[in-house]
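Renewal narrative, Specific Aim 1. Our central claim is that a sequence can be written position by position from structural information alone. The example that follows is taken directly from our test logs and has not been curated for this report. It begins with the structure tokens describing the chain, in the order in which they were read.
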């Protein structure tokens, strides 16, 4: 029988360096970025990675805790709803003669913080904590449970190395009243509500301290504040445990305190060890289903593990009323709002490794469908026009103005003009349906989303005298150009959405005629309208030049000033700052992947060598002014066989959140870029594509990658794919599920449990 681990063993990080991220010492200029990078989350709770020893009276740095879906609007002019931080439940101070042991983090002689990616835990170790003849060694662990998402756990082990003094440990909550109005504040339970949105929040807590294995009674000093006092002895071992349970209430006048207490009671019944064991088991399961391994490139492996850690941390399959914001729950940039990032850069990962999470994220779009309908109606269109920035209600949350780099007020038009969001949502729904075959989702939610977004585009694209339907006055993914006509990405994605809507109608009519009749009646959808949709799809302007194979990014783009970006290499600011907004708008400089994004999402739209031609043209004109851009370029390059270019983009994307030279992550990690890293590895280098009758593999490994292996789920089958550089050997193993088809080099092979398929890609092509 396996012996339970000691506290010291539990506080030790995973030994494999490929599974840990380490931060040594103290650098005040990088602290906020470290907090983002080392954040812990479970899709419901997120806690920034604030150091455990920054706890002096003048140097308190609250560890912000974010609760998914807890939005409110501050009382400021032009305010939009944003995530409201909960109280910091990790506050600990060690007092010697009434004075903090640590006044400033720079006083700590040695400090190491370790993000244990395998276990989903943040650990720290500090030595040289010395004051008034007291010398202590400190180890800590914190986590938010992956198995019971309402629970958080804090463990501290303090070893007294020298000193006989009177000390006090003070455990409290910081920021109890910030941003929330108090309804109830007891010793171990707090209940609050937001000022405007009607949301409720409750936090219940329990804490204990032992010295050399003996429980020490605490003294209560007030709500959420306990102290323990004793006289130290050399060699003394002090352990502290604190649990917290957090509940969100979405209905006004309903007290979430009961749920918080119930959650805490469940955690107390199994004990903190039981909470930790269940948490680690849940993380082990996630890694089994989602891990990607690379041999031959340690930096790429670390980048993938970091990306997968945050991707697995960001989702909560148990809550379909929330989605993932642009910084997940690691920071408050963009106020926690949801963008197209989720559908285009995150849903592929969840769909193929965690379909339960993908389904919940798509159900969020279904629950906000009425808001999308209202937005479309308000602008004179039919169907559903989703919010460019969405919070909990699905209403448009994009600010209408901002202060530009030149300190002038500028209008923000994304909320009304960046309309491709409705195609992006439909794309994610269809992709999920193809990969999972989830009939219940299609019938209950997915079909309605696709039909209503298809209806939007059929009303948005207007016929003109040239016989074509045009979509005028939009913003494409390249946000440097506004008020443009016939953006290729928008129009082609709109056409694709309309055609998928027609496919959905045909699918329901054939297989579920009763459900189709009911849905069509409710949506007032008839054959005349469906015929009109088909006519629009047939004649939408796309900007494709059949002679060159190039898509013109938008009408008139090719006539704009062509600027050589190589002349601006090494710049530290975006190109619209270098050139100014007006010149940028009159140039071919692209902020982020636009036509290249179309190439990444719908490669079938690029016949023959058209993909290569478009990538070559737009790659040299893209300034990559968004964290989303390089990953999409990497995906397109890998699929085109340009693995060296793709690897450069892969590593540059990883550097956004991992490089110590970056300071742009103080507001949270770039979760969509991390999703893009997975896409480049699996879709690009691994060559994975999803078909309606199976999966296909056409790998393009970088020269330095000896092997690539990844796990995925297709329908209800779990499989693992391994690709070797030598002979481009592909091995697919069906670990569970029904037999399925895998295509290698275009040739189909039946994959059965216990019978791996091993083929050389070159042999399959011959």
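The sequence written for that structure reads:
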């Amino acid at each position: 029988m396996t012996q339970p681990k000691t506290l010291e063993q539990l506080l030790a990080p995973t030994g494999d360096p490929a599974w840990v991220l380490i931060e040594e010492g103290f650098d005040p200029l990088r602290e906020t970025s470290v907090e983002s990078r080392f954040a812990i989350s479970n899709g419901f709770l997120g806690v920034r990675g604030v150091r455990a020893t920054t706890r002096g009276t003048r140097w308190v740095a609250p560890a912000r805790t974010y609760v998914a879906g807890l939005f409110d609007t501050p009382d400021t002019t032009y305010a939009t709803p944003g995530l409201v931080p909960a109280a910091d439940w990790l506050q600990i101070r060690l007092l010697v003669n009434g004075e903090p042991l640590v006044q400033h983090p720079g006083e700590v002689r040695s400090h190491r913080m370790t993000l244990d990616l395998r276990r989903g835990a943040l650990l720290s170790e500090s030595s040289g904590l010395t004051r008034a003849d007291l010398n202590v060694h400190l180890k800590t662990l914190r986590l938010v449970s992956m198995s019971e998402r309402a629970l958080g756990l804090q463990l501290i082990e303090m070893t007294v190395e020298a000193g006989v003094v009177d000390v006090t440990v003070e455990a409290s909550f910081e920021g109890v009243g910030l941003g929330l109005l108090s309804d109830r504040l007891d010793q171990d339970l707090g209940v609050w509500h937001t000022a405007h949105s009607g949301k409720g929040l409750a936090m219940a807590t329990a804490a204990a301290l032992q010295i050399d294995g003996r429980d020490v009674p605490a003294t209560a000093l007030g709500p959420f504040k306990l102290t323990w006092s004793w006289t130290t002895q050399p060699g003394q071992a002090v352990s502290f445990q604190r649990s917290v349970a957090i509940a969100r209430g979405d209905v006004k006048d309903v007290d979430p305190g009961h749920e918080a207490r119930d959650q805490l009671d469940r955690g107390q019944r199994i004990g903190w060890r039981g909470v930790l064991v269940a948490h680690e088991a849940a993380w082990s399961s996630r890694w089994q289903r989602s891990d990607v391994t690379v041999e031959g490139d340690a930096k790429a492996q670390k980048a993938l593990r970091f990306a997968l850690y945050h991707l697995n941390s960001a989702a909560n399959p148990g809550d379909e009323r929330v989605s993932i914001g642009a910084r997940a729950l690691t920071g408050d940039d963009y106020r926690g709002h949801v963008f197209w990032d989720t559908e285009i850069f995150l849903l592929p990962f969840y769909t193929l490794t965690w379909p339960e999470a993908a389904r919940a994220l798509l159900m969020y779009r279904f629950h906000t469908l009425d808001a999308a309908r209202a937005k479309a109606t308000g602008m004179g269109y039919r169907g559903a026009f989703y919010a460019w920035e969405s919070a909990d209600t699905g209403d448009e949350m994009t600010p209408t103005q901002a202060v530009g780099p030149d300190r002038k007020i500028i209008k923000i038009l994304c909320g009304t003009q960046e309309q491709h969001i409705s195609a992006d949502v439909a794309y994610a729904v269809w992709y999920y349906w193809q990969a999972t075959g989830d009939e219940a989702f299609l019938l209950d939610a997915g079909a309605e989303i696709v039909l209503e977004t298809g209806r939007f585009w059929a009303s948005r694209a207007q016929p003109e005298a040239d016989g074509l339907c045009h979509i005028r006055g939009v913003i494409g993914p390249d946000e440097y150009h506004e008020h443009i006509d016939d953006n290729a990405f928008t129009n082609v994605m709109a056409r694709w959405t309309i055609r998928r809507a027609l496919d959905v109608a045909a699918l329901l009519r054939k297989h579920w005629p009763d459900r189709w009749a009911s849905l069509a009646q409710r949506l007032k959808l008839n054959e005349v309208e469906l015929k009109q949709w088909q006519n629009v799809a047939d004649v939408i302007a796309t900007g494709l030049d059949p002679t060159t194979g190039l898509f013109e990014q938008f009408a008139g783009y090719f006539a704009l000033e062509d600027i050589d970006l190589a002349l601006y290499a090494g710049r530290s600011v975006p190109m619209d700052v270098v050139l100014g907004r007006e010149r940028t708008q009159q140039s071919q400089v692209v902020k982020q992947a636009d036509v290249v994004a179309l190439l990444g999402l719908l490669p079938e739209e690029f016949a023959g060598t058209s993909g290569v031609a478009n990538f070559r043209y737009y790659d040299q004109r893209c300034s990559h002014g968004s964290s989303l851009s390089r990953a999409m370029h990497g995906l397109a390059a890998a699929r085109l066989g340009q693995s060296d270019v793709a690897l450069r983009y892969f590593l540059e994307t990883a550097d956004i959140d991992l490089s110590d030279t970056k300071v742009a992550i103080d507001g949270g990690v770039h979760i969509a870029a991390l999703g893009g890293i997975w896409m480049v590895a699996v879709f690009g280098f691994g060559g994975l594509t999803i078909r309606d009758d199976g999966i296909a593999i056409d790998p393009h490994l970088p020269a330095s990658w000896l092997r690539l292996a990844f796990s995925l789920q297709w329908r209800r089958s779990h499989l693992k794919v391994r690709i070797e550089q030598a002979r481009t050997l592909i091995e697919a193993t069906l670990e569970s599920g029904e037999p399925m088809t895998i295509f290698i080099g275009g040739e189909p092979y039946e994959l059965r449990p216990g019978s791996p398929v091993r083929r050389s890609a070159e042999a399959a092509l011959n």
